[in-house]
TrEMBL record:
Domain Aminotransferase class V: start-end pairs: 4-348
Protein name: Phosphoserine aminotransferase
UniProt keyword terms in alphabetical order: Amino-acid biosynthesis, Aminotransferase, Cytoplasm, Pyridoxal phosphate, Pyridoxine biosynthesis, Serine biosynthesis, Transferase
Catalysed reactions listed for this entry: O-phospho-L-serine + 2-oxoglutarate = 3-phosphooxypyruvate + L-glutamate; 4-(phosphooxy)-L-threonine + 2-oxoglutarate = (R)-3-hydroxy-2-oxo-4-phosphooxybutanoate + L-glutamate
Originating organism: Marinomonas ostreistagni
Amino acid sequence: MSRVYNFCSGPAALPEAVLEKAQAELLDWHGKGVSVMEMSHRSEEFMSILASTKARLTRLLNIPDNYEIVFAQGGASALFAQIPANLTNGFDSACYLDTGAWSTKAIKEAKKYTNVVLAGSTKDVSYTSVPDFSSLNLDEKAAYLHLTPNETIGGLEFADLPETNLPIVADLSSTILSREIDVSKYGLIYAGAQKNVGPAGVVINIIRKDLLARSNNDALPSVWSFENLAKNDSMINTPPTFAIYLADLVFEWLETQGGVTAMEKVNVEKAEMLYSAIDNSGFYSNPIDVRYRSRMNVPFVLADESLEKTFLKESEEAGLRTLAGHRSVGGMRASIYNAMPIEGVKALIDFMQAFEKRYG
Ligand code: PLP
């Protein structure tokens, strides 16, 4: 077996120790003679996995008691609709911050359910920066303020939150568990699993309990109701059991690594190494405002665009997989989530420097 360094933006690399444990337990989970995939979701065994997953996430993110963890399906894209469908009941509008491709998609879906107030946008600078939080266009009577703190495609990240009384709804799909956050500052956090959490198929939602009553809307599909999901421990119907089990193993691994604080330290180191390699060359460049460069997704372009195909072919041959930028923007992108070891980033930098020597 030979594993490569996988820079895919998602589904992304998982920690090897997690895959090995899943492999060891694949046919016979804890001596029960069955795989987790074959267990009833209502069995005592699976209920213990679900409880463990929630307990570990609660510890990792220090989630206060007045929040519920709800597992949903349909990807974060389904949440783009599910959130306004649940939370705008009794409100005339919702505010959205527009900072890139993913917030644009969230806005498009929200418009089907409510009036979207554009709180701020950096479209005019091709999403290379973040709107000035002191002059946002906020409707204080809106249902919430939605933002995307890490734009996976553009490679833009911001950690500070605007000052507002509105509940903040944040798409943390590509940044959850990579840095410390104060959950109590959010009304709802949601994140598709396939970057920092586990395999695709489950979306984590951490929702403040007082917002659950807003789901009281007869037109809302029952499987979409946050209130219903919370009441039924995410088991209105069959949940994605294997994806939840893998998330539990990833959370266990994170705890052995020292939790989010330790992860953040490594993530800062990895990102600084890679950005400084880019900045110190005249051959590679990254367009994002340095204050808002993503620690998770690092897009870069080559001074000579005609070398892109060669770069991708040779990097793949060197065991550095999936470095192509998103199909909508081209260029390169290295996604360096929690599971990417520092050695992987060093290997990428060595390759980039050798490539520059050969072709620069
Ligand atoms: N939001 C962000 C920030 C993402 O990066 C992605 C996918 O990459 C999505 C939403 C959509 O996730 P999904 O494909 O699970 O619907």
